[in-house]
Structure formats: structure tokens, C-alpha cells
Design brief:
Helix content: under 10%
Order of helices and strands: EEEHEEEEEEHEEEEE
Number of helices: 2
Shape: globular
Radius of gyration: 19 Å
Strand content: over 45%
Number of strands: 14
Structural class: mainly beta
Strand order of the largest sheet: 1-2-3-4-5-6-7-8-9-10-11-12-13-14
């Protein structure tokens, strides 16, 4: 559009063939990019917190994934805890930054800065000045992230804050690393959660069938760790990974399996996963699937 600027827009939807949700809205944004100045976008966007999790977990968006299973944090879709009846996308590994502004810098010395801000993130119909914990308090949530990437080494660090009405603000931060050595890939991530709110599912405590092994009890602190190993052999990737939710929920996560890539956009996966939360309940699952991206 002139002076080195480019305009971009994205409308992204998801078709779920394994449930009753049908077609769901995902990313919807408009933005400007410049080679020397970076990218500035507005709308519903992925958070860097979420994107880094997708990079290091090859089973992302399958029944074998670590988020919600005890290996990585997950925000919950509760209208009184989050916005628009959905999940808070600033922190945790689900959802999107709603009504948000997003900036990504050019790379300097292999390092990139990303900033996300939601200046007015509230549920539909919420009135200012409601009771403690209302979605009205979600205004001005933000996230700051740094990424370093050179050759086979990738490093990531982020800090995210969820403002909550009349109670202590929820904070989450993490560091992650991935290193590739020939056919081998090693991954590690460590998370810290303070004053959990959007990241509290409470689902294991209530005994819901929709268990969230990554819950951190409301107002409490928690820690997560995630370790992964991948071995690439031709078009096949063999995966072993594990994690833990070190909080009052105290869950362990394991997964082993393989991914076969037919092409860059089509892959098949199969594996076994387990989440343990003694004495409440455990989960075990075998999963096989086919994914096609467009």
C-alpha cells in the first residue's frame, strides 16, 4: 500500500468433525506490516503464550495434547470468569485475545518482541462496577513475550496479566526451550501461575465428566513443567512427552505416539496418553486421527 507497508486480514474458522460444535470462529483480525517496523494488528488474535505451546507440543489440538491434561495450563470457558462467554486468551494455552491489539517487532540479533493488549475485554451485557470477579475487571489485560531463534536453538519467555475485579490480579509467566540435534528434538517448559482465576477449572473437584487436569484452584498458585523428545525418521516423527501440574490439583501427564506426514499440510497421528490425579480420578486414552490444514 506504499512506503513499505503491507495490509493483511484473516478470517479463520474451525470445523469440528468429532463433536457437536460444528463451525467455530477463531482468528479474525486486520493489520499492517513493515519489514523494518514490524506488525500491528487488531481483532481476535492468538496470544504468544498459546503459540509457544503449539510449537513445542507436536500433539497440539489432538486428544494426546498436554494442555488440559496436566502438562500445560488451560483457561476455562466460564462467562463470569472470562470474556464473551469464552476463555481468556491472554494467558494459558487456549482461546484468543479478544478485542485486542497486537504488536510483533522485527528480529534484532535473532530476538523478537511481542506485545498483546486487550483494553476493553468484558462479557456482553456486563455493567461497570459489578461484584468482585466480574468480567468487567478484565479491562487492560496484557502480555509481553521475547523469542530468540538461531539455527537449531529456540528460546522463549513471557509474562501475562489478567486484571480481575476487586481481587488480586491473575498472573502467569513461563520459560521454554527447544533444541534440534540431527534427527533428535529436545523440549522443556516451566510455568508459574499466581492467584489463579481464568486458569481455575475446578472440574476435577466437582467431578465433572469434562475433567481439566490443568486446573489451579481459585486464588491459589501453581507450577507446571513439560518435557518432550522427538525422533524424526523419514516422514515419521516418534514422540515421548510428560508433564506435571504442581498445585492443589496435582496431576501428572504422559503421552507416547507417532506422527506420519503425508505432506506439509496433511498428517496422521496415533498414540496413547494418560493423566493421573490420585485419589480423585485418572484418564487414559488411545487416539488415532488425520489432520488436514488449508
Amino acid at each position: 500500500i506504499g512506503r513499505g507497508f503491507k495490509a493483511a486480514a484473516v478470517i479463520e474458522v474451525q470445523v469440528n468433525s468429532a463433536g457437536d460444535r460444528g463451525v467455530n470462529n477463531r482468528q479474525m483480525w486486520v493489520g499492517l506490516s513493515h519489514k523494518k517496523l514490524g506488525f500491528l494488528g487488531a481483532g481476535a488474535l492468538h496470544s504468544p503464550y498459546k503459540n509457544s505451546g503449539a510449537k513445542i507440543d507436536p500433539f497440539w489440538f489432538t486428544a494426546l495434547e498436554s494442555r488440559g491434561a496436566g502438562g500445560m495450563s488451560t483457561a476455562v470457558g466460564s462467562a463470569n470468569r472470562n470474556v464473551n462467554g469464552g476463555v481468556n486468551g491472554i494467558l494459558g494455552h487456549t482461546g484468543f485475545i479478544q478485542s485486542g491489539l497486537f504488536y510483533r517487532s522485527p528480529a534484532f540479533f535473532h530476538t523478537r518482541l511481542e506485545i498483546g493488549l486487550s483494553p476493553d475485554e468484558k462479557a456482553n451485557g456486563v455493567v461497570d462496577g459489578e461484584s468482585a470477579g466480574s468480567s468487567d475487571g478484565d479491562d487492560n489485560d496484557y502480555i509481553i513475550a521475547l523469542t530468540y531463534e538461531k539455527d537449531d536453538l529456540w528460546l522463549f519467555a513471557t509474562y501475562a496479566k489478567n486484571n480481575v475485579e476487586n481481587v488480586d490480579d491473575e498472573v502467569a509467566y513461563k520459560i521454554a526451550a527447544q533444541y534440534k540435534w540431527g534427527q533428535h528434538t529436545f523440549t522443556a517448559q516451566r510455568e508459574w501461575v499466581k492467584n489463579a482465576f481464568a486458569l481455575d477449572g475446578g472440574r476435577l473437584i466437582t467431578g465433572s465428566a469434562d475433567d481439566n487436569f490443568s486446573s489451579v484452584a481459585t486464588g491459589k498458585d501453581g507450577k507446571f513443567w513439560f518435557l518432550g523428545y522427538q525422533y524424526k525418521l523419514g516422514n515419521n516423527i516418534f514422540v515421548v512427552q510428560a508433564g506435571e501440574n504442581d498445585s492443589e490439583i496435582d496431576s501428572d501427564y504422559y503421552a507416547v505416539g507417532m506422527i506420519h506426514k503425508f505432506s506439509a499440510l496433511t498428517k496422521m497421528f496415533a498414540g496413547f496418553t494418560a493423566s493421573e490425579n490420585s485419589p480423585l480420578r485418572d484418564r487414559q486414552a488411545f487416539s488415532i486421527g488425520l489432520r488436514k490444514d488449508f
